[in-house]
Amino acid sequence: MLLRINPNKPNYDEIAKVVNCLRDGGVIIYPTDTVYGMGCDIYKQRAVERVCRIKGIDPEKANFSFICSDLSHLSDFTKPVSTAVFKVMKRAVPGPFTFILEANNNVPKLFSSKKKTVGIRIPDNAICLEIVKQLGNPIMSTSIHDDDEIIEYTTDPELIYEKYKDKVDIIIAGGFGNNEASTVVDCTNGDFTILRQGMGVLDEYL
Asked: Cis omega (within 30 of 0) on the bond before 138?
């Protein structure tokens, strides 16, 4: 299903359709403030495994991140962070960053079987933030890559639909995406190490 949602003012009923799909174990493709992402409810193991099959990746080696609606989810899934890290995160989100933090025991086993970390992402995008708010817990996220060797990410939701319409349950058309992913920042040592430079410029928030 291709579901068109206004990125500036998401319709409650349309968001509810997406949330019901996630609660039923569905897989969706959705816009963020960077590239389009594919994901599901983090607690639906079969849905997570389905995403891995679609992407052709091993769940134990996958680098999924959690889309959260605000920093209140931190204590649910991560070990306590330093005041310095929290202050920077608070200034930088919502925004194009993925913060790698130490995971606690609440992270579903499928995500932490080989790792002790979790990526936390709070995009500056009203659609995915509203989905997470209504769902009540994070959704997992993995980027939609393009088959083109030059264009790394597919930005047109119509083209994404053509490619994935038989593989996922809902594809949200929420405007064109960007062609640059989030900046990945490792905070596990209490400092800030850029693992991947993307749209976000962390120096602006230090």
From this structure: no
The stretch 121-140 carries a mean pLDDT of 96
Q: Is 181 helix (H, G, I), strand (E, B) or coil?
A: coil
Q: What is the CA radius of gyration of the chain?
A: 16
Token representation of residue 121 = 């992402």
Residue 40 dihedral angles phi and psi, to the nearest 5°: -160, 180
Sheet holding 193-196, edge to edge: 2-4, 170-173, 28-30, 37-39, 139-143, 65-67, 117-121, 97-102, 183-186, 193-196
* Distances in whole angstroms, Cα of residue 194 to Cα of each of 79, 80, 198: 20, 20, 9
7-21, pLDDT tens digit by residue? 999 999 999 999 999
d(CA 183, CA 43): 25
Q: Which residues contact 91 (CB under 8 A, 6 or more apart)?
A: 205
